[in-house]
Structure formats: C-alpha cells, structure tokens
Design a protein that fits this description.
Order of helices and strands: EEEEEEEEEEEEE
Strand content: over 45%
Helix content: under 10%
Largest sheet: 7 strands, antiparallel
Shape: globular
Structural class: mainly beta
C-alpha cells in the first residue's frame, strides 16, 4: 500500500485492531493511501469507519474508489463524492456522530458507452444494511479504472479517523 506506513497505524479501539490516522505532524492533516493497482475496476469496497470530534469539529474519513473520493464529512454532516472537484462533486445529508462506528459500502458502475454511476451507502455498524444507496451520483464519463484507497482528514491534528474490516471484492460480471 503506497505511502500508508507513514500515515496510518494499527491501534486497539473498541475491542478491535483498527487503522488509525497518524496525527504527529499538523502540517499533514489530509492523507490518501492507495491499496491497489491503477488498472483495477469493477470492485466493491466495504469498511467500517469512525471519527473523533465534538459538535464543533470532527474528523472526516472515506475511501478512494476508482479515482473517486467518497468521504464522510463529519463537520458538514454529509457524504460527498468527488473527483477533481471542478469536474464532479456531489453530496447528500448523512448524520455522523463522533465515536460511533458506521459501515460504508461503495461501488462504481460503468456502462459500455462510458457513462455510469458512483454509489455509496452508510449505516450504523451492526444494524441491517439498507436497500437504498445513501448517495448515487450519475457521471457522463466514469473513470474506467483506478486503485482503491483510504482517506483521512484530521483537522488541526486534534481528532482521529479510524477504519476497520476493510474488504475490496470483485463485482460479478455483468
């Protein structure tokens, strides 16, 4: 995993070994660590995420999926999908409580004509997975491939971001 060792560490939290965003240097509040190959496509990411913070400031956490950043933005109480912010940026309301674990599932679907949709759903860990996606973002020119990755934003290096149970699985052929 590219650059991950200097940005994430394994810690004990809530009875599990989890990945925690390292916050030693306040100059590096945002981090992206790629986990796959740039030619990867047609996969689903599933992970449990948690952020620290309070009602005035919270960390953000998410995944990179085929060149799209899918982020739970604690300060804004939303889930956001972006890729080169000028080209694509969409968000939906998503209530996020600090020190609460959520399950995040993401999928990017590309049609033969190049169009497609970026989907994500989030719900409290341990509850039943909802049928509906939390956010669905149509895109006229979906990225054909891209490595999976993880993302963390720790504002002013005060509040931590965590990931647990990360899986990346191939989608069934269409």
């Amino acid at each position: 995993w590219f650059g991950g060792v200097a940005k994430w560490e394994v810690r004990d939290k809530d009875g599990s070994k989890v990945l925690a965003r390292i916050m030693d240097n306040p100059l590096f509040q945002r981090t992206v660590s790629l986990l796959g190959h740039p030619d990867d496509h047609d996969y689903t990411i599933r992970t449990d995420v948690c952020v620290a913070g309070n009602r005035r400031s919270m960390a953000s956490v998410g995944v990179i999926h085929q060149r799209y950043l899918i982020e739970l933005k604690g300060n804004y109480q939303e889930i956001e999908v972006s890729s080169n912010v000028e080209a694509l940026k969409a968000s939906a309301h998503c209530a996020i409580q600090p020190e609460t674990w959520y399950t995040l599932v993401t999928r990017v679907e590309r049609k033969p004509d190049g169009s497609g949709v970026v989907r994500a759903k989030v719900w409290p860990r341990g509850e039943t997975e909802p049928e509906a996606w939390t956010i669905e973002v149509p895109h006229a020119d979906v990225h054909p491939s891209g490595a999976a990755g993880i993302y963390g934003f720790t504002p002013m290096s005060r509040f931590e971001a965590y990931l647990d149970n990360l899986t990346i699985t191939p989608d069934s052929p269409r």
